[in-house]
Amino acid sequence: MPNSAVSNSLFSSSTGATLGRRATTQRARFEDFGGTRRAFAAHEVVYYEGDPVKRLFQLSEGSLMLYKLLPDGRRQVVEVLQAGDIFGLAEGSEYDCTAETLTKTSVYEIDLKKVESSVGLQQQLTKCLIGQMNALHEHAMLLGRKSATERVASFFMYLIPNRGGPGCVGPDPEVEGDGCDLELHMTRQEIADYLGLTIETVSRVISDLKKRQVIRLEKSDRIHLRRVCDMCQITGIH
Amino acid sequence: MPNSAVSNSLFSSSTGATLGRRATTQRARFEDFGGTRRAFAAHEVVYYEGDPVKRLFQLSEGSLMLYKLLPDGRRQVVEVLQAGDIFGLAEGSEYDCTAETLTKTSVYEIDLKKVESSVGLQQQLTKCLIGQMNALHEHAMLLGRKSATERVASFFMYLIPNRGGPGCVGPDPEVEGDGCDLELHMTRQEIADYLGLTIETVSRVISDLKKRQVIRLEKSDRIHLRRVCDMCQITGIH
DNA sequence: CGGTCTTTTGACTGCAATCAACCAGTGTGG
DNA sequence: CCACACTGGTTGATTGCAGTCAAAAGACCG
Questions:
Q1: pLDDT over threshold 60, residue B4
Q2: Which of A175, A221, B87, B175 has its CA 20 to 30 A from that of B62?
Q3: Of residues B32 and A52, which shows the higher confidence score?
């Protein structure tokens, strides 16, 4: 472990799979701590921005987005969550975002009091929060400084485990070529609201990548990358 | 406490003062847990993006920014921190951002092992992280969906405690008028990199607000708001 | 006072937003 | 089975906001 001064259970080790991070290691789930499971269909709202905070959630299966709205209808998707991610935390007594499922999901709910009293849960929570925080930093860079093409390319790279990040392993030498298939599980509108773009711009960028033969569309939300490294070059990170 | 189902020590109560939140209550400091104090001058780097993670920090006095760079030099300031805020957490073994002071600051350092073993510190940490997370959500909305003018206005409102947020108290009836003085403690370049704009655009927006008599410049980083409510109208939140 | 650095202002350009059609897939009912 | 509506996605034409490039105006300092 070169250059690393720490390797304790709390702060080291890659965990979770929030978009914007690319780690793989499993982390503990709320079910281990007595949380109760709840299922949602695709495009269901778990809670609305402004609702009173009652419980804490952990995503167990599927994917889910958190978004905020301005009074005139502008929307910003602030996080796209994957299995293991935490949501439902708030400073005050109201949620600061709306939580809406993207796919069929399974969620663990847990009482706030229970979290407070359990050291194990606390540590779990911290670990998740740090990861999600790093993803938010990365996303701030995307929203503040990247071009439309770079945003879309970065978004695609988010979806590929172990690639594009600081721990990128490069093309797998075991596998012929460096291709990859992606399922977006998001509409163009959701992608646009996540990337701070319009639906038309997202569509145009994707069409352009298609024309440049960087990608191939199997379906509108199923995309094949010819070579992952090519996509990575477009993200602005290299 | 209308509409609030919870009021335990961990997740309720307004805490901290990170930009993007407007709360006031004091929270515990690391000094109480045996952290060591360290002083920095203005524009000093505490650590660089990519440095190995060794310690956790809490800002005690002054203000500090976290930023990320792209290889071509584009910069995004991802957080501007105030007293009480935590920084230096990372998923892996390296910092994901550079931490640089904006003013003379005082920082408490604490060993990661110590945090892991203390329930009190853990709770403290969680509280801070949730607040900073909410600020990042708010900032994602700013970067993804707001106009240049709305960004600058929102930035100014960040700097005013108890105004503009969900718990906005409106103009203080005790005080004649609704004016307010602000110290920015940031150069135009830093503001631009925080708001995802260029230095010229920030300057133009400020000139325009001046022409519209919404603000008056005492110095280039000292600004008087004629009426806070007027500024708030420009943020896009209302 | 000149020299350096930050901020402001001006002229122009370009990227992404807007407005508007069009297209493809899906479901419904006569 | 086809006509129809409806939804989500794509493409085209045009506009406008913020970026870029360039220069002037202040601010600060030895």
A1: no
A2: B175
A3: A52
B125 touching A (Cβ < 8 Å) = yes
Indicate yes or no: CB of A93 within 8 angstroms of CB of B134. no
| CB of A197 within 7 Å of some strand C atom | yes
pLDDT for res B107: 95
A11 vs A83, B127, B235, CA distance in Å?
19, 17, 37
- Please indicate whether, in this complex, the C-beta atoms of B70 and A236 are within 8 angstroms of each other: yes
Interface membership of B53 toward A (CB under 8 Å): yes
* B110-147 per-position pLDDT tens digit: 988 888 878 888 888 998 999 999 999 999 999 999 99
Its CATH class, for the domain covering A30-143, is: mainly beta
Return residues 133-172 of B near A (CB < 8 Å).
133-134, 136-141, 143-145, 166-167
With contact defined as beta carbons under 8 Å apart, do B130 and A89 qualify? yes
Q: Into which CATH architecture does domain A146-234 fall?
A: Orthogonal Bundle (1.10)
Higher-pLDDT residue of A120 and B48 is B48
3-state secondary structure of B189: helix
- The domain limits of chain B are 30-143, 146-234
* The two structure tokens encoding residue A136: 């938010």
CA of A202 to C1' of C21 (A): 18
What is the pLDDT at residue A7? 39
Six token digits for residue A173: 């030498």
Fold match between B30-143 and B146-234? no
